[in-house]
Specification:
By secondary structure, this protein is an alpha+beta fold. It is 16% helix and 29% strand.
Length: 178
Amino acid sequence: MSLARYYRFNRATRARACESGRQVIVPTRYVLPSRFRSRPDTVTAITQQLKPDVYPRVDDEATIVLTYPKAQAIIQASGNWAFDRKDIEVYGQTGYAITVRSNDLRVRRGTSQEEQIAAKPLPAPYDDSLSYLQAVLSGQVPSAGPSSLETNLVVTEILDAARRSAASGKTVRLSATR
C-alpha cells in the first residue's frame, strides 16, 4: 500500500496537486512515534526549479521542515532522482531505523552494531492499495491509520502550509485547533 502523495510545486500558485507527478511527500506522522502523531507546530518549505527544460511550469525540488514539541521531520521531495525512492530515516537519542526498499530495515539501538531486519509483510487487504480501498468501501475494514480521513486532513494541512511557506519565504505556524 503506497502512503505517498504526489505533488509538484507550481511556480505561480506554489502548489498544484498532480496525480501523475514525480514528487513524493511521505506523511511523516506514519513513521513518527505515537507521541508525535499530531499536527506539527510549524512548517517551513523551500522550493526550486532545477530542470526547467523538463518541468517548465513547476518547481521540481522541495524541502519541507516540520517541527513538533520534541521532534523534527525533514521531507525531501524531488523530481530529479534518477530512480524511484521512498526511503525513510528516523533518528532517536539512542538509535535509528532506515528503510531499505520496501522489505527491510537497517536498525541500530544503543551501542549495538547495525543490523538489517526483514519487514513483516502486511496481511491482506492492507498489502495492496486497491484491495484496501475496496475493503473500506464495502465495510470489511475501518478506515484507520495512515489511510484515514484524519491523517489525510493533517497531510493536506501540512501541504497547504508548505505551499504558503514557499510562496512567502517564511515559516508558517499552525494554529492549535483546525
